[in-house]
Amino acid sequence: GVEKDSDQALAARYYLAYLAKVKNPERRARILVQLGSLYSTNFLLSKGEKPDYGRAAKYFKQALEAEPNRINAPMLRARLNLVHSGMSAEERLHGRMELYEWLLSLNEEKIRELAMPDNPGETISEADLKWLVKYCGTVTTITAGNLVGGAKNTGQPLKYLNVIRNRFPGTEAAQRGESLLERYTNAIQDLADETQIEQIERTPPAVIEASADVPGKSNRESSPDLDRGNDAPGVLAAPESRGWMVPALACIGFVVVLVLVWLWVGQRHKGKARSQ
Questions:
Q1: Whole-number Cα distances in Å, 15 to 19, 22, 32, 194, 219
Q2: How far apart are CA 189 and CA 192, in angstroms?
Q3: Chain centroid to CA 269
Q4: How far apart are CA 205 and CA 234, in angstroms?
Q5: 69: DSSP letter
Q6: Pairwise CA distance, residues 83 & 40, whole Å
Q7: What confidence category does residue 256 fall into, taking pLDDT thresholds of 50, 70 and 90?
């Protein structure tokens, strides 16, 4: 059945044995891509097979060393799968940026020039060339989407969306990045507005009135309790409502002193009268 034929270990042994006998770079590249795919995509979890992205990347790199320039579907797969989930979000993003830059260097003329047949010595048909040109365009579009989507997973989306926009101006990735940047910016502004509204709603009314009723002063100057971090519950009194306290206290103090002097003088007179 399919599962028996696709046994990961058995297939790997078969490919490695075949690879040892092959000298042609085209054939070697194709075998190495098949080996890489065994550990990146072509595995069966139901049989206990697992991905091994590090081993897969090693085979894909060897395939690209054997055929560094020419293009066909397997060689595109090798480049695509050098970026894998075993890498950190930032590593994947940088890998995709390198891939996208290479894809942008291709045009129809260059793709036709670098087109690689599936088997050595074969002539590529016009239909296959047109398919390859279209396929390269599809991979470029997918990579642009993955590039922008990957920026969100780095934890620093604004930073990397700006990097994408500046590194690839006028491209689909830049346009998608610009659109996502705008959404992030609007979301941040909306969040800031909501936070400001919440702060205003939670501020005691007297504090707002005190800060608004004193002409020629900033909010902080006219509300000294805010500067001292006063967060006691209740309504704070406006600064001008405390203006009577200083003269009142002075008057009380003066009266107390007069009383004490009057009592002291009275005691002196009584003492003199008794001595006489």
A1: 6, 11, 8, 61, 76
A2: 5
A3: 90
A4: 10
A5: S
A6: 10
A7: low
Contact 28, 58 (CB under 8 A): no
Distance of alpha carbon 181 from its chain centroid, rounded?
11
Helix/strand/coil (H, E, C) string of 148-162? HHHHHCCCCHHHHHH
What backbone torsions phi and psi does residue 115 show, to the nearest 5 degrees? Answer: -60, 135
Q: What is the pLDDT of residue 129?
A: 96
What are residue 233's phi and psi, to 5 degrees?
Answer: -70, 160
pTM of the complete model: 0.65
Concatenating the DSSP letter of every residue in 97-158 gives HHHHHHHHT--HHHHHHHB--SSTTPPPPHHHHHHHHHHHHHHHHHHHHHHHHHHHTTS-HH
Tokens of 149: 């989507």
d(CA 70, CA 114): 5
Q: How many CA atoms lie within 13 A of 134 on its CB side?
A: 6
Q: How far is the C-alpha of 259 from the C-alpha of 194, rounded, in Å? A: 61
For the stretch 21-48, pLDDT in tens is: 999 999 999 999 999 999 998 888 888 8
Average pLDDT in the 106-123 region? Answer: 92
Distance CA 102, CA 96 (A): 10
